[in-house]
Structures
1.
Amino acid sequence: MKILPRSVSENARTYAVKVLLYNIIHMELLPGSAVSENELSEALSLSRTPVREALIELSRINLVEILPQRGSYITKIDYELVEESRFMRLALENAVLNLVCQNIPRSYAEALEKNLQNQRNAQAQKDHDTFLDLDNEFHKLIFEAANKTWSYQIVKEQMVHFDRLRTLSAKSDIGKHSLQDHEDIFYAITRQDSELAQMLMTRHLTRHRTEKEKLLERYPDYFVV
């Protein structure tokens, strides 16, 4: 498990949630695996109370399952939840793309271009965690370019189930199209072609359907059946 730095403004529960969420999304805590309050408390240098509160909070969004007298477990990936989160994200992001294609501020166009270069570097180095972070930043920049930062935060909170699938796909080298998809979307934005941009985004956010069988075959124990 990766231990993240704690900011001075974070209370113990918030910090525990942040670390656990990161490790669940980045597949450091694998679907179906048991998690121990005692071991987490020791690893995070926290008492058991904030760790327990963090696990309860994550159980409310179906990332942790708490079984009385048996312990806590990271939930398996549920394709129904993945599909629902993708549905909401696609609806919002295509609406945002329509705004961005009308007039993207130069500073955001440059930021997206720099982000893509960093994605290329991360992919060349097979740095999957950095690539996923840059992937998220790419989409965040699109929302920010349309002055829809609050909308992005809503999408981000609902994307945790989809993000686990994206991580698994990237780390297993099944999802090899993300960088090219981003390049194509950026091209459409610079061309101010909203129809093309939305078509490309729809393709980008539905690739998990074509990858589903490969992932299920390779990682059958990670999924709800």
2.
Amino acid sequence: MFTRPLRTVLALALVAGLAACGGGRKADKTDLAASRVTTIGVNSYLWRATLDALSFMPLAQTDSNGGVVVTDWYVNPQTPAERVKVTVSILDQDLRADAVRVAMQRQVNQGGNWVAAPVQASSVQKLEDIILTKARDLRRAQVVD
């Protein structure tokens, strides 16, 4: 009915069409994973990454519905005259770079009193990057499974 070259072209077109259909489903899974929201009300990857990144600090408050984590003051044993307190806010349900905001307070001990001290902007940026990297890794692991 069809010549051999025409059958080959039709077969290739069919295979390409089926591959394109399958690719759409995979993209949907990826999109779903990017905005994975569970009963906690915020992006679960960002939430878990935040808790993981701050796991060495004592937590003062966590609000999974509002997406806020506040630590208590943390004193690094290597620098006992300095302490920090961190607040992380998850601002979006999607896994995006602007969906995390970190605020840090720093105090130094001067004569037995804790006095406010400036926080380096790079410290805040580094913690945001750590949280985002952990969240992306969690997402990649989930999408692969």
